[in-house]
Design goal:
This protein has 22 helices and 25 strands. By secondary structure, the protein is α/β, with parallel strands linked by helices.
């Protein structure tokens, strides 16, 4: 009886009823909002606002209940007798009385709300768990696969990947596996403008016609950007719109994590020029150039046009020696001003570009880039407009050559025809256009008596974009034009414009030495076979392979060599094996801890083949005790090739290695050293090199180490994998390597990829495995 009375008092209490109705209703509202957040991308901020509103209104609701209940209480006292006179059949006790209480709306409504809230909560949790399970088992692996494809293409398709990751982040934002993938896909950037308050927009580089996506208002802190290439636009009323690229590579960010921009009003800009801040010269900023810092500067947005150049001619530029400050040098001779400018005439003998007539450009070509002018004419025009020709450092900084495979897609190459400036959506750094293609551009820097041209042109293939060519400054070619720049900070001008020595090699006229002379070279690598005294340092087993580390003695100095042998667990001995030679990073490393088999090698093991990776001389800290040999490339190469001979000797002593099926795999530096190894070690039966080419100069200053003498003596089947935009090994160098190989035509294969200094992993795997299967047969 007491329990029933207490229950009735509780359920009839207006405050309890109000709280139950309020909490149940609020819970239902919040669950509905949560559903829309998870499934339709509703902003999470809305949930927080609604929660604050609900908590704020609750005290007001309780006050109103108290106020109206107080007035109602007075009325209930005066009408109590009348109520008592009414005959109502109310159960006195027990379960029937509880059921009777639930027949009243004041009790039934809260009860139903509690039931509904509970059901919604259960449904929401079950649905949420189902969504998470699907995201973890299906969508996250698909995202990882998509990341691998984008990674192999150096960021092409990065925004599609990024948008998919953003959707998945709504569900898995706190999941450790997703966080790891998210960090691989994105990098946080800060964007700061002076003045602040500018709106920042972004979109994929590869989809310039898509709408801009609002990123926020400056300053932006820790804004995630997809790795790869992104176009951005920065707008602020009354200021010139700033365009740029966010260029964060998969291994390193070019700009650190902060991008700073100075915005200018329209009347503050010096014509069609863009502002570029200073930069620290390093590999990511100006790859494959000597390290050189630069101060801030202006540079032309577009190449100089015919109409702009005509103003120089109309101002009697060819007769004013003030504009012609550079010495006129041809071979060992110096020319006077008047003698020199007589060479700068058009087809009709008037002063002007080589392909004009009567000092005029063809009608309708006023917005085409001027061409057919020498370096001297370009420099004179620059001085006329109070500018200068850019240095190779300035130009390379803007061109982002590490992303060349994507950028050249929007340039003017491959015989498309000369185009008006700005026709192609070929945005490069800080709002410059037409760097890729259209016309090659004169650069200030010299190489001996020659000058650099760079960028490629409308008649050449796309890989010319990353090539640094040197030609005579007197050249007046229809494919060469220029743009100008202006120093803001010229404190480093002397260092930026200095001569850069780049001797060129005539790859069409390479003559290897005779067999008699080569035999003398070969004897440089002769060694007396000695006892190796192998010692096992360790032997470990993983899920997929055995890692066996053996130390052997070598016949030079007191430098025992470690041989790391990886044996597969999914095939049977004797194993086919791959003798691996790494890139130059191994030479630059000082510790064996940096040695890792990684994803670019473990596919051999998964394919059932053994990997042999010696710690070659000069790699991973294995150096000479003889100080006179430390910097001697000649001695280094002799020792490395001796190491290869010693490894092959040791492999012949092992029953688990098939010594008749040893292949060589070289990467980058390994591709460059491959000719010396494969021409002198006959126990290697097959070669696979990724990133290769004939050296552009006699890099090591020793005639007996010229690749061209070794390549014709390589007779084994050879697979060559190269990048079209490789800075180390240009297409010209790769072709010379392929042509000089002594391997019969049917047994050598050269594949070129739309890449810089890397090979897409899936192609590396597929082509390499197929090559070995073809010549060595299937594994045991």
């Amino acid at each position: 009886m007491k329990e029933t009375i207490f229950f009735n008092r509780v359920v009839k209490n207006p405050y309890v009823q109000t709280v139950v109705i309020y909490v149940s209703g609020g819970w239902i509202i919040l669950e509905i909002i949560e559903y829309f957040i998870e499934n339709f991308g509703l902003n999470e901020f809305i949930r927080n606002i609604i929660l604050i509103i609900l908590l704020s209104i609750l005290p007001v609701a309780l006050f109103l209940v108290w106020y109206f209940n107080r007035k109602q209480g007075i009325q209930e006292k005066t009408g109590a007798e009348d109520i008592g006179k009414k005959s109502i059949n109310i159960p006195e006790r027990g379960f029937r009385r509880i059921l009777y209480s639930f027949s009243k709306p004041k009790i039934l409504v809260p009860f139903l709300l509690i039931i509904i809230a509970g059901l919604i909560t259960i449904f929401s949790r079950l649905h949420h768990q189902s969504v998470i399970e699907k995201a973890l088992t299906i969508e996250l692996p698909l995202l990882a696969d998509e990341y691998s494809r984008v990674y192999e293409n150096v960021g092409i398709g990065n925004w599609d990947l990024f948008n998919n990751a953003l959707e998945l982040r709504k569900i898995l934002k706190n999941n450790p596996e997703f966080i790891q993938t998210w960090n691989e896909i994105t990098d946080p950037f800060a964007i700061i403008t002076q003045p602040g308050g500018a709106m920042v927009y972004g979109k994929p580089y590869s989809k310039p016609d898509t709408s801009w996506y609002l990123l926020g208002k400056t300053p932006l802190w820790d804004k995630p950007f997809p790795k790869g290439l992104t176009r951005i636009k920065i707008e602020k009323p009354d200021y010139q719109t700033q365009y740029d690229l966010v260029t964060n590579f998969f291994h390193s960010q070019f700009e650190g994590d902060t991008l700073k921009y100075r915005l200018y009003k329209e009347n503050e800009l010096p014509g069609e020029m863009v502002y570029v801040p200073g930069f620290n010269g390093n590999y990511w900023q100006t790859p494959y150039l000597p390290q050189q810092d630069a101060g801030e500067f202006w540079i032309d947005r577009y190449e100089v046009t015919n109409s702009q150049y005509k103003t120089f001619m109309d101002s009697e530029g060819y007769s004013n020696p003030e504009y012609w400050q550079a010495p006129f040098v041809e071979g060992d001779d110096s020319l006077y001003f008047q003698e020199a400018v007589e060479r700068f005439k058009d087809q009709t003998g008037w002063y002007g570009p080589a392909f004009w007539e009567l000092g005029e450009f063809p009608k309708g070509e006023d917005e085409l880039p001027v061409s057919g002018i020498s370096w001297y004419e370009a420099a004179a025009y620059a001085r006329f407009v109070e500018k200068e020709l850019p240095s190779i450092y300035h130009w390379r900084k803007l061109s982002v050559p590490l992303f060349a495979p994507e950028i050249v897609c929007f340039g003017n190459f491959d015989n498309k025809g000369l185009a008006k400036v700005g026709t192609y959506n070929s945005l490069t750094r800080y709002g410059t256009y037409d760097l890729p293609g259209n016309v090659s551009e004169w650069i200030f820097n010299s190489s001996g008596n020659d000058r650099f041209i760079i960028g490629g042109n409308y008649k050449e293939p796309t890989y010319w974009y990353t090539m640094k060519l040197t030609v005579s400054p007197w050249t007046r070619n229809e494919l060469v034009g220029f743009r100008c720049m202006r120093y803001i900070d010229d404190s480093l001008k002397k260092q930026l414009t200095t001569n850069i020595n780049q001797p060129r090699r005539d790859y069409s006229n390479l003559e290897p030495v005779s067999d008699e002379i080569f035999q003398v070279y070969k004897e440089l690598f002769y060694y007396k076979k000695t006892e190796q005294n192998p010692v096992r340092i360790s032997k470990d087993q993983t899920e997929n392979w055995i890692h066996d580390i053996i130390s052997v003695e070598v016949p030079y100095e007191d430098l025992p060599m470690q041989i790391h042998i990886y044996l597969p667990l999914n095939s049977n001995p004797p194993f086919q094996s791959i003798l691996f030679f790494p890139g130059l990073g191994a030479h630059n490393s000082n510790t064996i801890k940096d040695m890792s088999i990684g994803s670019n090698l473990n596919f051999w093991l998964k394919n059932g083949r053994a990997v042999i990776w010696p710690v070659y001389y000069s790699t991973f800290g294995r150096g000479s005790h003889n100080k006179s040999n430390v910097n001697s490339w000649k001695q280094t190469y002799r020792n490395i090739i001796t190491d290869v001979h010693v490894v092959c000797d040791y492999l012949e002593t092992r029953n688990d290695i098939d010594s008749e099926k040893i292949a060589f795999s070289g990467f980058s530096w390994g591709g460059g050293i491959a000719p010396y190894i494969l021409a002198t070690e006959e126990r290697i039966k097959l070669g696979i090199v990724a990133l290769f080419g004939v050296q552009s100069i006699d890099k090591y200053m020793f005639k007996e180490f010229d690749q061209i003498d070794y390549l014709p003596r390589v007779k084994i089947p050879m697979l060559l994998l190269g990048g079209k935009f490789d800075f180390d090994y240009t297409m010209e160098q790769q072709k010379a390597f392929y042509d000089l190989l002594g391997t019969p035509e049917g047994d050598k294969k050269w594949i070129v990829y739309e890449s810089t200094h890397y090979i897409p992993r899936k192609d590396l795997i597929n082509e390499s495995v197929s090559w070995l299967d073809n010549y060595f047969g299937p594994v045991n």
